[in-house]
Each structure stands twice: as structure tokens, then as C-alpha cells.
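Quick one - first record:
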Amino acid sequence: MSIDDSAVYLVVGGSGGIGADVARQLAAKGARVIVTGRDAGRLAAIGTETGATTFELEARDSASVDAALHPLGRIGEPTDVASAICWLLDGAQGWVTGQIIGVDGGLANVQART
């Protein structure tokens, strides 16, 4: 399994079984890992063992999971991206060049606990 150093890996159902094993393998290769699950005790043990960021989830739908994982606590809207584009297109930003501006609610900056 090859690891992309710039990626954050999300393991759903990682409090046991295959999910826990995948989290262990990713962490062993130095990946940033987020592990979700419903068993708080087993999830905490995986987090301690791997250094992964863990979230206990009772969510039944993917939108709730996505919102819980974002540092801002919500899923982005098209207007969030549009606002950044409008800011860049405004003539007042004429001195901004060659930048990478993340419009992801902080998700790219999520770090595994150490």
C-alpha cells in the first residue's frame, strides 16, 4: 500500500475488525489518519495505539459524518467557494499572486494526535 504524504485518510468503522487493521497499517506507514466508529472504548484504544485522530459517531448518514469531521463543524456550500473566488477577482487583491488558498473548512489541516 503506497501512502500519499499530503493526504488525510479517513477510516470509517475503525473501532474494530478490518477498519482497525487498515488504520494500524496506514499509521505504521506515517499517514495522517482519522478513525470513526461507534464503540468509544475500542476507538480510544485504536487512537492511542496508532496516534490517529478519533471521532465517536452515532451518525447514520454521510452528511453528518462529513460535518463532524470538518473543524468548522459543517459541510461547505457553493457560496463558500464563490466568496473566495470573488475576493480573488476583486481589483483590491492585485498584489496576491501564486498562492494556494484552501477553501475546505480547515479539513486539510487536520492533524493526527500524537
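second record:
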Amino acid sequence: MPQHVECSPLQDDTRVATTHRPTAGRIVSNPDVLGGEPIVRGTRLAVRHIVLIWRECGSEHGVLAAYRQLTERDVRDALAYCTDHRAEIDRHIAANLAEE
């Protein structure tokens, strides 16, 4: 079955190509981990972490170099989750930047 690829805005003129497929198995929320923020299953890495590195590096390979424990699927699913839940992820990013 062919995968649908879409280029979606993440921030201003930044765009990311994402492959849409089910993310239920990879992106999860647990109220005991990072306050329930969406994370990659089996890690303490929030989707916002992956999005911020992607914005900085501009590529999936940059994210994989920064977070060697992630797989390509983890990164793609996190970026797809961001595309589908942009307002939520933007709120998490803004809240954490305000704390710094």
C-alpha cells in the first residue's frame, strides 16, 4: 500500500515532509512522564524535543544523530504527530521555552 507524503508547516515558513501512518504504537502519553506530554514509547523524549531538533537540523538524519536511541520510524511518527496536533505541540514548546 503506498504511503501518503505531505509537506506540512511546523513554524512560519518551516515545512516538513511526513509520511502518514498510524502512530498509536509509537507516540504515547503518560501522566507520570513529562506531565503527560506526548513522547516516543519507551523513551522520555517528547515530540517537542524531536520537532525542535528537526527545526534546527532540517532533516531526519540530524534528529537521528542527536538522539541515537530513536529509529527512523520514531522520528517520522513524531513529526506526523506534530502535523496532526500542531497547536498542542506548539503549546508544549512555548511553555518549555518560557521556563528557560
